[in-house]
Fold these 2 entries.
Entry 1:
Amino acid sequence: MKPENRAFHPRLHIVVAVACASVAAAACGSSAGTTSDMRAEAAPGAPGVPYANMPALAPIGVRVDKYLDVPDAAKGPAVDPARGYRTQKLGDGLYMITGGANQSMFMTYEEGVVVVDAPPTYAAHIPKAVAEVTDKPITHLIYSHAHIDHIGGATSLGAKPTIIAHTETNRLLKRGGDPNRPLATVTFDHQYRLSVGSQVLELSYHGNAHLPGNIFIYAPKQRVLMVVDVIFPGWIPWRRFAVAQDVPAYFEQVKKINGWDFDTLVGGHVTRTGTRTDVATQLAFMEDLKAAAQTALKRTTPGEGLNPADRGNPWALFDHFIDRVVVDCMNQMIPKWSTKLAGFDVYIWDQCYSMEQSLRID
Ligand SMILES: [Zn+2]
């Protein structure tokens, strides 16, 4: 008697379909018959069977019950909620001030105070924080760059300081016309040395990476480097390399910071200041990510598994291809980095999407 062909046994087919519907599709995605059956049931545009090897981290747009725990190494000192800010001395007359999510600085000198950035979330507290260490007035305000979350509190400092920024920052501020971000009165293109009393800040421009006009602010005596929205000590960068406008240039800037001679880094966000080790760690993460996306792009075939009815839709073809590249990128990155960087699960999908796009078109 001929043995029964189990693959076409109707009852077994139902069991497989139910199992695939109730678990992540890793083991089921290769079953062409099951996939097409389920695809036929889904309305056009509705979610279909997950890609093969779909990682366990929720993709963009899917609600998460509990994000991964923040590693201890990423945690900074807590900000007293009643106070609303925390001040940290970085060296002779130089302080970092934070409200918990943003960071800025101020530097005292013999006749006054230089403030670097005024995040709107706590800028109203800056005069109070300054008054805790000196009775001198705020005479200068430096803009790291034009973004509102770093300088939108400029008018709440309670003074009319001289504002210093890069030429490109003023161009963007003019375009925006935001009364809360007044134009700088002193601008520069390449370098600017602010020397006040016995204190010095060296401002320099290294091109557009995060945003045109985003500058490096270096305090040579205190060996403190402030670069905003590029380095995230202990954390994965904010989505899509912190919305870098030029991803290859962003990589170059992180390398430049990695080679800079400093002791303390102020990154403008997250919970603590950074060290040179933090910069090296972020660079290693980015280089791993680049290699993972390169590998995924090489071994992913466009159109494989796409519904034949969508072959004439180039947007669909690319969406399906790019998704599979990113799933591969994710699966390479998760084992090595998911417990090392805070917020890994929050933004790793975004980083893989940004990396594969930059590698294809930049
Ligand atoms: Zn920014």
Entry 2:
Amino acid sequence: MGRTEMTLEATVNSSPTTIAELVGHRTTETFALLDEESKREIRRALLQAVCIPGYQVPFGSREMPVARGWGSGGLQVTLACVGADDAVKVIDQGDDEGVNAVNLRRLVTMSTGIDETTEVDEATLIQSRHRIPEDDMNENHILILQVPVPEPLRGIERDIRELARMHAEADYSRMWVSLYEDKVRNGVITQSTGYPCLVASRYIVATTPIPRWDIPRLHQSKFLTLFGAGREKRVYAIPPYTDVEPLTFEDVPFEVESADGATCRLCGSSDSFLVEMPGKQESWSCSDTAWCRRQRNT
Ligand SMILES: [Zn+2]
């Protein structure tokens, strides 16, 4: 008892300095929000993912200050990769000013002190959910995609062991059957976002909610693409210069979305991914707002 009192007294007496020291200590220790051990574990999973393109690697998804389903997986990948010299760009639906994008970017910059940017040229880490930027990207860029459903076969099989077997044996016959049924029923393959692709002629991946427009950008890309699914606790990767083939039949060509004759009402572009203005029919604008702004200024 005496011992406890003494310890308590000693703690109280020394607490102002100790806490100040502790806070100072912690500030330098927790660069990028996560503790070093967590970041190391996520990086280990990412390395495995890069070594086996398209393979979904389980990881210990952390509780984050954003709800699961709001980019917690992409955020953990970003925080595990970020260094003091990086600059980050975050987009949601191609827009840097989306509420979710602003919040995630603020979290990354506040916990690291690194620069933020809307320009692809200046960014080294680009976190996104629905788009790949229109700009050319190169070996200096890491694209980090927030993934809601990492399992491309989820729609045709729910048993986890069977899914593991199908991936392990590259038994994707039922995927082809489902695409064929879609084609027969609807005349076209209707899947528009998260289109399934074969990576390095081995694993089928879900390409997150990016539109078909962006899929060809992943094929033999110069940049590394990392996929993070926080709720489902999976990461996977497409390393630079890897084959990415959208699943389709020999006599059914893969086609991207197009709006015939449509142009952006702001910059006049007809060769970017256009989205219809809410509530206004036949009024289109570029989904990538930073790219659109640059088209108007040059
Ligand atoms: Zn535009």
